[in-house]
Amino acid sequence: MSDRKRILTGIRPTGALHLGHYAGALENWVRLQHDYESYFLIADYQVSDYADDIARVRDSVWQVALDWLAVGLDPEGSSFFIESLVPEHAELTTLLGWFLPVSMLERNPTLKAEMAAMENPEDGSQERKPVPVAFYTYPVMQVANILMPRAHLVPVGEDQLPHIELTRETARRFNHRFKPVFPEPEALVGRVARLVGTDGNAKMSKSRGNTIELREDAESVARKVKGMYAGPPRGATEPGKVEENPIFLYLDAFDPDTDEVAALKETYERAGLPNKVLKDRLTEVLNTKLDSFRERRARYEANMGLVKEAIEAGTNRMRTISRETMEMVRDALDMNYLGRY
Ligand code: TRP
């Protein structure tokens, strides 16, 4: 086993990934994957909200894996794995449940918001849903996910930070009370903590239908950018405010030529610029970026056997380390009843 520190991070398989995932997290994964021993989780236990649509979950497992390969994650240097194929996660979740007070979960801001949304859906057409038991176990399982490979770093989107705080606290308590088994993992948020949606809403998200997916083709990207919200109505030669036009947030996020973006902003505020100029530039910037993804994706899509092998190999590596961790946990808890595990 290498002596590099470890990364554990993951995504729920509920659909294809989009630019928000990339700028908020995936970019960091790609950058750091070889500096750390990296484990990338497809969190298929964490889908109670899609329990009546497992076909979608199953399809999404492959979409997520393809997106990861497309952006340049290396399935040999790192490990891609499916959560439910490593049942030690369920075992560790049960044990950690002994030590995690419900009140700690109830204070978690992400959970609070999700619970409120379930009980009072914003969208009147959605019915109120009862809160499933899984709603309380999933954060414990997320803690178990991170602790399982004894990870040091968890690169994630901003919305996941409360889960990592919970993990740190759990690790601290366990180590203090039993044996020092777990590192206290650090969180790392991407360059763009939260990407606005194409409709100008504060967050790009599938449920709002305001995403640009990583797998989207060039025409579709052009069409979406054309339809993007670009601030309050304004004549083409009327000066505008940069902070009111989210196209600039996208250019800041994805345009490698920062000098040119600064020059565009200056002109925009001084003399005005037609939105079309900005949108055409953004389309080109995005399509240049996505082209390299599309090419890799197409190569793997034509050979799904390779994708399956990658996940199988990664899952096996995760199983090995999980068994090792569970031995340490049982030893720490003094649960080796028969003398051996
Ligand atoms: N909750 C994450 C999401 O919604 C997925 C996830 C599950 C995760 N377990 C994790 C992320 C552990 C980081 C670490 O996408």
Q: How many domain units?
A: 2
Order of helices and strands: EHEHEHHHHEHEHHHHH
Q: CATH superfamily assignment of the largest domain?
A: HUPs
E-strand count: 5
- The radius of gyration over CA amounts to 22 Å
Report the CATH architecture of the largest domain: 3-Layer(aba) Sandwich
Protein model, in words:
With 341 residues, the chain is mainly alpha-helical. The chain has 2 domains: 6-195 and 305-340, HUPs (Rossmann fold, 3-Layer(aba) Sandwich), CATH 3.40.50; 216-297, Tyrosyl-Transfer RNA Synthetase. The protein is built from 12 helices and 5 strands. Strand 1, helix 1 (19-32) and strand 2 (37-42) form a beta-alpha-beta unit. It is globular. The model has no long low-confidence stretch (mean pLDDT 94). Tryptophan is lined by residues 8-12, 41, 43, 46, 142, 145-146, 154, 156, 160.
Concise summary:
By secondary structure, the protein is mostly helical.
Short key terms for the protein model shown above:
341 residues; mainly alpha; Rossmann fold; Tyrosyl-Transfer RNA Synthetase; 2 domains; two-stranded parallel ribbon; 12 helices; binds tryptophan
Question: How do the helices and strands line up, and which of them pair or pack?
Answer:
Elements: E1 6-11, H1 19-32, E2 37-42, H2 54-71, E3 79-82, H3 88-96, H4 102-107, H5 109-119, H6 134-147, E4 153-156, H7 161-177, E5 186-189, H8 218-226, H9 247-254, H10 258-270, H11 275-301, H12 304-333
Parallel strand pairs: 1-2, 2-3, 4-5
Helix pairs in contact: 2-11, 3-6, 3-12, 6-7, 8-11, 9-11
Bound molecules: tryptophan.
